[in-house]
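Risk register update: the risk of archive-format incompatibility is retired. Evidence:
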Amino acid sequence: MYRNKILLGVVSALLLLSCGQEAMKNTENLTSNSDSKVRIMALDPGHFHAGLIHKSMYQIVDSTIYVFAPEGPELKDYLSRIEGYNTREESPTAWSLEVFVGDDYLQKMLSDKPGNVMVVAGKNDLKIDYILSAIQNGLNVYADKPLVINSDGFQKLVKAFKLAEDQNLLLYDIMTERFEITTLLQRELSMIPEVFGQLEVGTPENPAITKESVHYFFKYVSGKPLVRPDWFFDVEKEGDGIVDVTTHLVDLIQWEAFPNQVLDTADVQMLSARRWATPMTLEEFEKVTGKAEFPDFLQKDIDDDEVLQVYSNGEMNYTLQGKHAKVSVIWGFQAPEGTGDTHFSMMRGSKANLIIRQGKEENYRPVLYVKLIESSEDELSKAVRETLQGKYPGIDLEKLSSGEYRINVPEKYHNGHEAHFGQVTERYLEFFQEGKMPEWEVPNMITKYYTTTQARAFAMK
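Archived output:
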């Protein structure tokens, strides 16, 4: 175990892991620094999202990242990713690291506490215990989704939020999809009653709001092939698909259908849920993990044909304050050439339907369409060219031969998934400076994770 301080981009971060042991520095003086600056402690960064928040620098964030982690390929990937940001030609970052490597990484972080915000993105089965420990020790938490993957974890999360409230600490999950431009515009239009009317009640067969997300295990991130850890394919560690990516979709349903409103678990009625597997051959497994064999902990999920069955897919039907909602997440191994992750969303209003498609006709980029039912073209045009253009200059409206209307969005607003990590981090930093979040955020996070864990419980029956 050791801690070294290193300026990435001057000395390779990967060399850090081969350095000799050094005596631990006394960091007690760091904890007495003014809390006006955010000092980040990255705990066990096992998912590439842990690195993505450092793609940009932030004015109120100290440039030193304190890393506490076990030795392994995930840590190497994290260090390499930040080194890449520090050494890129365009707008390089200037992060420096103090790294502690050892089996007692959690205990060391809690005893030293050189920072005031713990960032965690990695093994989802351990995440809630990390979060609870951090809150119990007076630390703010900024965590990748999902915070919990089962009902037992949900009970711990409720406890963590209560302790955070008692100590005036911020516990927040990283909801990047709120910053995707077509989702933002769908939400904005749904809040204009002259265009959208009121959200329909819907039925299980024809929900008022639908969200479907398609993802792939093998992809490129920051221009490089993404190497996933082998444990990512163990749903006992990563979580079933029905509690993982669905976190974003359930969040968007709450955020769009009930904007700025406080929700409660009593508002949720789960009607049905199911899960199913994506098959993965050993050749595919090696391509995405670099491992030539299936590890022992995955043997439970390998069928008679020696194919790994990954329960990454899920679907749920439920009502939220009586409105019917449907959420689906589907995983394939690799997207066909020229395609990628896709998203479909529909909000059905009494005057118009708001539809996001991301298929071949859209060149696999999300596009927002409006189908008028009782609203007029004049009302829609006024909403887009007056109300929305005031917030998003340059957007425009185009009538299609199908009778639908397409919202045309300038390229500058399509900044991509990776950029959203910087945007949501800026939002968290605003909360940190203000010392509070909107009153609806915490109860709605609790309601969100109640929904996903209830769906898993239904699907496991």
